[in-house]
Amino acid sequence: MSKIYAVGDIQGCARSLKALVKKLPKNSKMIFLGDLVNRGPDSLGALRQLKVLQESGRAECILGNHDLHLLAIDAGIRNTRGLDTVEPILKAPDRKELINWIRKRPLALSNGKVLTVHAGALPQWDLQQTIECAQEVEKVLRSKSYKDFLGNMYGNTPNKWSNSLKGYDRLRVITNALTRMRFCKPSGKMEFESKEGLEDGPKGYIPWFKVPKRKTQDTVIYFGHWSTLGLLRENNVVGLDTGCVWGGKLTAMEISNSNKDMKRSEIIQVDGYDHPLRM
Hints:
Elements: E1 4-7, H1 14-23, E2 29-32, H2 43-55, E3 59-61, H3 65-74, H4 87-91, H5 95-103, E4 108-110, E5 114-117, H6 127-141, H7 146-152, H8 167-179, E6 183-184, E7 190-191, E8 206-207, E9 220-223, E10 232-234, E11 237-239, E12 249-254, H9 259-262, E13 267-271
Parallel strand pairs: 1-2, 2-3, 5-9, 9-11
Antiparallel strand pairs: 1-12, 4-5, 6-7, 6-8, 10-11, 12-13
């Protein structure tokens, strides 16, 4: 049986991606945890590599907030910003194929025991509901009206889940939870400004994975998005954004179905990008 590795945020670091794939066992498979592009030196090259890996059956790629940002720019809904590095994708001859490929990627994956996601899962969601909510957004992204969704995707409200939410409010909460969340209250109310370490959230807010009695606490979860945590392994939770784009490492970790096995899982790292604005 092939080993499967979860891989942290690439963010356009094509050289690091190529080096990591070379270090992994040849018959292994990969799940990339989102933020495939942006901020790094070669978003176009990274995206092309990932597309080949996915289409060859070696990998799957989960969407992160930077990937959705690219879709919004491509759709004319957002403009590029200071540190963005997606312009070469927009000028590429295969732009349409790349954008359509991104639109068809998942926001979360599970084998029934393990969850892989970019940012996290709300404490009110169990594993099944997390996947079902992700699929709601995936369905819209793959539809002909996906640009309407992108035009209504941004915003910090509603900032709390309710099963009664409908329409774009419901889709926005799902998207924010899966691709942007770091801190929330035990009630599930999310906060989106804080990006520092575990103890640095606003008063009353805690890291989403430390919420008592969250419904996915018995599920092993691999996530990215939170580079200031570095490599995190605790209580069924693995954080794998080790700041590749900021001069850190690009990290892959063999996926295990239990917390006990996770602590013995193989970790493979390569050097990240020496960003001129490295933090």
